[in-house]
Fold these 2 entries.
Entry 1:
Amino acid sequence: MYQYASPLRYPGGKSCLTKHFVELIKLNNLSNKTYVEPFAGGAGAALSLLFLEFINSIWINDADYNIYCLWYSILNDTEEFIKKISKCKVNINTWKKAKILINNNQNHSKLEIGFSTFFLNRCNHSGIINAGPIGGIEQEGKWKIDARFNKSDLINRITKIANYKERINTSNLDASILLNKINSDNYFFYLDPPYYKKGKELYLNYYEPEDHAMLSNDINKLNTSWVLSYDNTPEITKLYMDKRHKTFDISYSANKTKRGSEILFYSNQLIIPENIY
């Protein structure tokens, strides 16, 4: 039932929490609100909730311009994006061109930036944009660069997302700006900021300790329901020590698969399901 809906790969992606969010939405009558992810990334949970009709509309925001261009292109240049998937050669030459474009994106269209970001996400180790290609530059590894680039499956996922575009909003804002812009009871926020400890290794837009502290101030000012997920660290639990929380284990695929501990914090007005699935 809860299939992975996103065309992107993300280390520590939270589509695994979809069932938990379904229970939250049901218990708190949130289905008529817009579900907002200020740190959307792959937006796996958002898309699953939308496709399964547990939520009316979703808002995908990411401060990373490359990721924003990807979502913008999927929703607004769907046919051209799909053509690029169909025609592209999944090899190291294409990878090198995508890498150069992403690092010098000033003179390129949203479609070019979006597709290059998509290509690197699908072809790099663990979907990390600034990582190396699967199989290495010399392609001597067990798995090759096309191991996660099933064209027909990716086209199907993108086509389905585009079919819902009237119910999907996208933006390229700093999370704090977005929170202040739409701080009302019309929204239900799920925030998944960069990890406190590994953020610098995994994301182009990572947070310093002071950024995490500023975000906690913005979250505490929200006038609506929200859920927040983080890596389970003393620094983060201290920032949200007055909030109810639950811990859970998650599989990470960065470098090698392993399990880590994460924590969910909840706004005061939410009724919380007993279990995290």
Note: The beta strands are 34-37, 57-61, 168-171, 187-191, 226-231, 244-252, 258-266.
Entry 2:
Amino acid sequence: MSIKPYQLTANKIKEEYKKGNLKASDVVQSLFQRIDNVENKVKAFAHLPEKNVGAGPCACPTQGDHRGSPLPLSGIPVAIKDNICVKGQLTTCASKILEGFRPPYNATVVEKLKKAGAILFGKTNMDEFAFGSSCENSCYHPTKNPWDINRIPGGSSGGSAASVGADEVIMALGSDTGGSIRQPASLCGVVGLKPTYGRVSRYGLIAFASSLDQIGPITKDVTDSAILMNVISGHDENDSTSVDLPVPDYTKSLIKDVKNLKIGVPKEYFIEGIDSDVKDSIEKALNVLSGLGAKYEMVSLPNTEYAVSVYYLVATAEASSNLARFDGVRFGRRATKTDNANEPSMIEMVSATRDEGFGPEAKRRIILGTFALSSGYYDAYYLKAQKVRTLIKQDFDEVFKKFDCIITPTSPTAAFKIGEKLNDPLSMYLSDIFTISANLAGIPAISIPCGFTRHGLPIGMQILAKPFDEETIFRVAYTYEQNTDWHLQKPVL
């Protein structure tokens, strides 16, 4: 085989297994060699996969013949974001406050991966507790963009996107609260899908903002995304927000046909400050789809301008509540030194633990959220934000009455340089301006590669559809992907 196993997609690996040309051990060994060669540059992992990845009670076997396996991910290595619980494996949300924490149970998505035959392959780096858009807020190290190691990979699922983009793993899971799958997927030149809220169980996902979080796939192409979505989707009685609806076979939506499909293009997404290369790439992508029979026209989502403000009120309020559990008493880090050297009180211990354990961005968001929920400010901020959130959802509902999907840029710019926005949180928050609305409305959205800047950096196109209509998203994304070659481009590391 001229191409190395680590370069293959999951669907191609499955084909090679069926032919008897590959074994899972070949794939795993190839990935370890790739990690040895490039991980010191990319730093995509918070916790590297163990060399005996195919052994132990929590692992899936790498040995044996996968040719006749009916399991959809038999012998396919999948990396897991560091905020998704894997029994017995370090799961720290890239935060000092959870150092040494090993969950006693698996997240539902992890159980589904194991039943599907997947090989659990390490924990990927992230912004602490998913707070960030650049993967610079990890307590371990910043992750680098495989296309330019002087630039950020996006966040918070930057480790998952970078590991797939750098061919260090075949596919990965991320979580998306305001664009944390799609934005890094765009900046790293891979495919990232945020499912409809409730389509994938959140049980075992360490919560950031419970009404916004969703687990989703990050993959090398659209076919792999559909395969992984088939595995992780479905109702879960352990998650009260999980929706009890039948799960279609998403691979049946992988058809090259967009004739008479109606696409809405919101004018609010082509704002002042958008990179000209990004704008040109989206326009060219729309022309490709138009040439294949789709029809597009400009539409309006008038409340888009409030999305960032609404998001950073709702998300921080929910985060401050969710992170109250990290107190040094039940699990994770406990401060050993306080201002009271004799016998510190419980309050002093908790205060010292949270001061030591949380990084600057986590503290900033806890303070913002606590303020928004405090007496006298709840109605003025949090409640008002929830009302505007409803208006944002209604904007999408109106557009989807006439259009099958919406297409926008995923990010207003390509990847920026490491450190460029680290001391400017407001500028950093605006990195998610095009992705936040999908989480507020609870609708599905995917980012797929659609071009490169003049500096050789990937650009992503975002496709959104009405709730639980991932099938339309896959159909449009697959049609575009099969008529272009952006997804085949690889970084030189």
Note: The longest strand covers residues 445-452.
